[in-house]
Amino acid sequence: MQDPSPPPIKKPLYEGSTQFKNWRYSHSRLAQIRSTLNEAAVSVIRTTFEAYEPGSSANVTFLTADEESLLVTFYATMITQICGRFRFPEEVEATAVSYLKRFYLKNTVMDWHPKNVMLTAVFLATKTTNNPISLEVYTSHIPKASASDVLDLEFLIAQSLGFEFAVWHAHRALWGIWLDLQSLPDTTSNSEATRSPVYTSAVSHVRSSRLTDAELVYTPSQVALAALSMADRDLALKWLKSKQDKLRSDADHSPNIMESIDNITNLIRKHGHAPDVEAVREVDRRLKLCKNPEKVVGTKAYLARQAEEDKKAEDRRIRKADVQKEATTDGDPFGEVLARSKPGLVDYDDDDDD
């Protein structure tokens, strides 16, 4: 008899998620995506400038891909402030930051300013995480914000996300690791009290990781373990050692885990902080000069674009009206008259009273 085949390796639930399938990249791939988006945007905007004012693009200094990322990172820190103002749970903040970063893997800040995208990302995150807030209350607590500022971009953001709203977060993975540590045989009974500062520190590192590309490159559990390692490396190694049997049997899914942890740690230490405010102001000042004129209300390009969109909408309305008219002229809009009952069939209206 042949030996029975080994049971198939059960894949983690995370590997079945849209995040694993569609929102994970290498560092080089991220750089390529952002560079390609930036170059395409600069080309289109330069052409638009020249179409309406020949020679006007010669003195414009367009943003680079790194400068765009700097601006996105700054507004990711603003999400933390907004969520703190409304006392939204951690899930809302983390989800909104993910939405912001994913949006700018499909779009450029020279088309859509991060300030407006940020406001809509937070509002959308409150709904997708089941922490809803009314639009009126939301905008009333944000200076100079109107309902249209939020709603105008909601569909665009959802579309850019591929309508994939679920996000797997590192702070949840960290909590799972922390619970695992409490259940280890050699864990003392008062460990939770003595190590709670460690957990608080690890959560702080997870929050810092949101200002980096960590979640776009690594899994939530890897980011969480790196954050724990930054808070207490011995504790992280202790948890990892408790999982060694599984890691050995599932080697294909855990290649050199400590190398990844160290890479994430270096990434958080290098980039996990708010950008310099003066540098952000300079980029934002230049953005006002190089923003796509088709997106700036009142410009010739904007008015021409609006006229074009209005014409397309009118054409669609006319075509729809023509279809409806054709449907009514081809026959009775309520359908054909029902055929009379054939002779010989039972007449259910007949009664036998006489």
TrEMBL record:
<dbReference type="Pfam" id="PF00134">
    <property type="entry name" value="Cyclin_N"/>
</dbReference>
<dbReference type="InterPro" id="IPR013763">
    <property type="entry name" value="Cyclin-like_dom"/>
</dbReference>
<comment type="similarity">
    <text>Belongs to the cyclin family.</text>
</comment>
<feature type="compositionally biased region" description="Basic and acidic residues">
    <location>
        <begin position="309"/>
        <end position="328"/>
    </location>
</feature>
<dbReference type="InterPro" id="IPR031658">
    <property type="entry name" value="Cyclin_C_2"/>
</dbReference>
<dbReference type="Pfam" id="PF16899">
    <property type="entry name" value="Cyclin_C_2"/>
</dbReference>
<feature type="region of interest" description="Disordered">
    <location>
        <begin position="309"/>
        <end position="354"/>
    </location>
</feature>
<dbReference type="GO" id="GO:0016538">
    <property type="term" value="F:cyclin-dependent protein serine/threonine kinase regulator activity"/>
</dbReference>
<dbReference type="InterPro" id="IPR043198">
    <property type="entry name" value="Cyclin/Ssn8"/>
</dbReference>
<keyword id="KW-0195">Cyclin</keyword>
<dbReference type="InterPro" id="IPR036915">
    <property type="entry name" value="Cyclin-like_sf"/>
</dbReference>
<feature type="domain" description="Cyclin-like">
    <location>
        <begin position="77"/>
        <end position="159"/>
    </location>
</feature>
<protein>
    <recommendedName>
        <fullName>Cyclin-like domain-containing protein</fullName>
    </recommendedName>
</protein>
<dbReference type="GO" id="GO:0006357">
    <property type="term" value="P:regulation of transcription by RNA polymerase II"/>
</dbReference>
<dbReference type="InterPro" id="IPR006671">
    <property type="entry name" value="Cyclin_N"/>
</dbReference>
